[in-house]
UniProtKB/TrEMBL annotation:
This is Alpha/beta hydrolase fold-3 domain-containing protein. InterPro entries: AB_hydrolase_3, AB_hydrolase_fold, Carboxylest/Gibb_receptor, Lipase_GDXG_put_SER_AS. The lineage of its organism: Eukaryota, Viridiplantae, Streptophyta, Embryophyta, Tracheophyta. One of its GO terms (molecular function) is hydrolase activity. Residues 76-299 form the Alpha/beta hydrolase fold-3 domain. Pfam families: Abhydrolase_3. The active site is at residue 163.
Length: 326
């Protein structure tokens, strides 16, 4: 081996490798082999929403929508991956979006975002914001994409995400809570945070005591944060810790209703629970659901389980139905 060869400094799930000379090797495919389950009941297509950063989103809708006069709620699903890996095109993401479109009878918008460490935070948050503003542009355009606008209900929009995507959803809730009047004609009715990826310099009990063999263990959590937070920052950064010293006072922010879902065996459980409890103390409309014994990302790791495919979907469906009828 050449002694001058760069040394591997960080490795993430076989997808991302960072070397001592600053070079990065990234695979476009996940490390796991999951088949795509497309039964033909949902149609989809890709659309570029940010040409400057070469970012696309994937749209899904039930095939039955084309024959119905009823508009469909618009539901964002932002993928996870610790801000470092993942894509709208990964099979686990696509399978989940198929189920969302079919079971919610909704138009699903699944955007990509710039990944770290090439693009550290706040890049991912800004890209999530751009993806929602793209929808607003479609709603007001004189020449919109009718594949979308013929079926999308712009007054019933929901923003969801899992893990890092849940973090993005939270930060969008805060931003849109401040900019409420600037969203028209779209109206975000609620946010669904699935195992949101929050951090902090003080370890939570579930982080400190979680098993090393967990799907998302403490070592991997630390690696994701090292690679994604702004340089010279800590995990008390305002985009990482909702209640850090740098963060907005959420008691003063107008927030749409929020659903928080977490697995009882997830190392991030305590942070998600604390988040929901604090928002309730502030008088916000928050629902917290914990799946006993389930690990981080259980609904994509084992998408066909009863918890993933039945119970979780029913919880999300109920939340959407309640907010649409309000």
């Amino acid at each position: 081996m050449n002694p001058n060869s760069p040394v591997e400094m960080e490795e993430v799930r076989g997808v991302l490798r960072v070397y001592s000379d600053g070079s990065i090797v990234r695979s476009s495919k996940p490390s796991f082999d999951v088949p795509v389950h497309d039964d033909g009941s949902v149609v989809w297509k890709d659309v570029v929403f940010d040409s400057t950063n070469n970012l696309s989103l994937r749209l899904y809708k039930p095939i039955s929508a084309s024959s119905s006069a009823k508009k469909l709620p618009t539901f964002y699903y932002i993928h996870g991956g610790g801000f470092c890996i993942g894509s709208r095109s990964w099979p686990n993401c696509q399978n989940y979006c198929f189920r969302l479109a079919s079971q919610l009878q909704a138009l699903i918008v699944s955007p990509d975002y710039r990944l770290a460490p090439e693009n550290r935070l706040p890049a991912a948050i800004e890209d999530g914001y751009t993806a929602v503003k793209w929808l607003q542009e479609q709603a007001t355009s004189e020449n919109p994409d009718t594949w979308l606008t013929d079926v999308a209900d712009f007054e019933h929009v929901f923003i969801s995400g899992d893990s890092a995507g849940g973090n993005i959803a939270h930060n969008l809730a805060v931003r849109f809570g401040v900019e409420d009047a600037e969203q028209k004609p779209i109206r975000v009715r609620g946010y669904i945070l699935l195992a949101p990826f929050f951090g902090g310099t003080v370890r939570s009990k579930s982080e400190a005591e979680g098993p090393v063999e967990a799907f998302l263990n403490l070592e991997l959590i630390g690696r994701f944060w090292r690679l994604s937070i702004p340089e010279d920052s800590t995990t008390d950064h305002l985009l990482v810790n909702p209640f850090g010293q740098e963060s907005k006072d959420l008691e003063l922010v107008s927030l749409a209703p929020i659903l928080v879902v977490v697995g009882g065996g997830d190392l991030l459980k305590d942070r998600a629970k604390h988040y929901a409890e604090k928002l309730k103390e502030f008088g916000k409309e928050v629902e917290y659901v914990e799946f006993e014994g389930m690990q981080h990302g259980f609904f994509t790791i084992n998408p066909n389980s009863e918890d993933s495919n039945s119970k979780l979907m029913q919880i999300i469906k109920r939340f959407v139905s309640v907010q649409c009828s309000g």
